[in-house]
Every structure is written in C-alpha cells, then in structure tokens.
Amino acid sequence: MPRNIVRVIQAVGFKSNREDPTALKTIHFNEESSDAVFSLHSHSPPLMEAAAMANTVRVATAQMTSVNDLSANFATCSRLVKEAVTAGAKLLCFPENFSYVGSKSGDSITISEPIDGPIMDKYRSLARDSSIWLSLGGFQERGSDDSRLRNTHVIIDDAGNIRSKYSKMHLFDVDVPGGAVYKESSFTESGEEIVAVDSPFGRLGLTVCYDLRFPEIYQQLRFNRGAEVLLVPAAFTKPTGEAHWGILLRARAIETQCYVIAAAQAGNHSEERESYGDSMIIDPWGKVIGRLPDRLSTGIAVADIDFAVIDSIRKKMPIDQHRKPSEFWRSVEAAL
C-alpha cells in the first residue's frame, strides 16, 4: 500500500490566468491507498481529465534515505516503483546513490561494479517487470581500476534495456560551510561527455547533483542537445540544500525552458552523513508542480509533463533565438 504519494493533475487552457504562459490549474491530492488513486481519478471532471490526458505524460520523482545495505535499498526502490505504477507514472526518477550510501567517504568503492553487473541487473528486471522507465542517478560504476569509480546516471526503459548513461562531470570537492569536508575526486573519475537521450517523456538531459551549480552543462543540454526535460538526481547536504537547492533547480528550469525532475536523498544515512531531501518537479516557467509534503519522508511526487506547455513558453519567449552565440562572446573577449 502506498505510504506517501502526491498526485498532480494539470488542466491547460483556463482563461482565468492568461498572463501566465503555462495557463495551468493544479490540484494536489494526498493519497493513502491505491483504491484512493483510482477513486479520485474516476471522479475527476471530464474536461479536466481530457485536458490532462492531451499531449501529456505522467512522471514521478522519488525521495528516500539510502543506507549501506544493497538489499534494503532495493526493497525501498521496489516499493516506490509499485507506488509510481499505481499512480500512473511511466517514468520514475531515483536520487543519487539510490542503491548504496556508505557510512563513510569512499565506502562505495567496495560495492562498485560494471554497468552490466548483478546490481544493475536487478534494477533492469524491476523496470521490465513493472513496465516503467527508471532514471537511476548516481550508480557506483567501477572505474579504470579497483580504487576508482564513476558516479553514473543510468536510464533504463520499460523493457529493461539500458538506453543511455552519463558520468558525473563536476565532482564535489568542497569544504561545506557549517558542515563536513568532501573530496569526491579522491575516489571518483569525472565524466567528459554531455548526454541527452530520446524517450516517451521528451528528450532527457542527464546530470548528477553537483552539476546543478554549473549552468553551462544545462545550456549545452538545451541549446546544443535539444533537451526538454532535465533530470537532477542528488544527495545535497543539509547546509547547501537549505541555502540553494530549490533556487538552483528553478533557475535551471527557467533559463532553459525545460521541465526539471529532481530526485533527492533525504535524512540521516548514518551518524556522519545527512541529506537535505525535498524532491520536486518543476515546469518550464519555474513553477513547482510536484513535491512531497515532507522533505524528509520516503515517497514519490507525481506530475504531468505537458509538451504543449514547453512549446508555448518557447514560442512566446524565444530565448534560443535571442541568445548570443559562442562566436559573439569570443569576439567580445578578443576586443578587450
């Protein structure tokens, strides 16, 4: 039985909000059981339900507290997949380190394995058996030797096939104000490729956690790779999450005119590690359209990707036509 689902139904075209290009009316439900999902769905007004179904696809983002137990984390992910399927989602996005969080820095080396290893095979079977796409962001893929890994974001389709993968570019080597000191590069190899992949949910732009602070990769994904939906699996620390998490996510959505699906680790993983949480889904106008009511609870938030909203915003504010090309900036720099 689902513990914590937030269901979002969007209806487009309401004239009461013409100044907002998204023209959305959003209704939130807290649903306690699968029976409630279908009961509420069947009694939705016909106009709203028809509008929500037109040119839309339902997606979900997960929030969880992974620990140093592969089996326990897989059990949590399996339960969240069932909740997402019950809610009608066709894609579920998991946070960084979904399968394992060590009790101390570098522990992940001990469980890292190739992308075709037994850990990922279990998640591929989960996707296939549940007929749902999975975004698995922050998988500990074995690196070039036994002392290194890659922080890899994997996309699996509803047949269990690996459609694409991206290795985190920006590594978290930070002395967090009011927090701990992190040195991700001491055991992690950085990626060198920008990755976008086609899907039934639009063209997906893949990133991981600390990438969020570097708008260049998101600009590349939108304007050079054609991304429509940006995926941000993360495990933000509590101090950095409190200060910047929601602001950065909304900024990335607004400046790229993309949907953003952010899946977050939440709460205490061990005595030494705590994550901020607050998984959310943001539309291309910067509105939060899906969010758990509790930023620390384990559960999912659900919303609809509406391709008409993407098209409308980009047509009315064509920043892709207005932005200056890289050649312009090089000429400006040369003239200094």
UniProtKB/TrEMBL annotation:
<dbReference type="InterPro" id="IPR003010">
    <property type="entry name" value="C-N_Hydrolase"/>
</dbReference>
<dbReference type="InterPro" id="IPR036526">
    <property type="entry name" value="C-N_Hydrolase_sf"/>
</dbReference>
<keyword id="KW-0378">Hydrolase</keyword>
<dbReference type="InterPro" id="IPR045254">
    <property type="entry name" value="Nit1/2_C-N_Hydrolase"/>
</dbReference>
<dbReference type="Pfam" id="PF00795">
    <property type="entry name" value="CN_hydrolase"/>
</dbReference>
<protein>
    <recommendedName>
        <fullName>CN hydrolase domain-containing protein</fullName>
    </recommendedName>
</protein>
<feature type="domain" description="CN hydrolase">
    <location>
        <begin position="57"/>
        <end position="307"/>
    </location>
</feature>
<dbReference type="GO" id="GO:0016811">
    <property type="term" value="F:hydrolase activity, acting on carbon-nitrogen (but not peptide) bonds, in linear amides"/>
</dbReference>
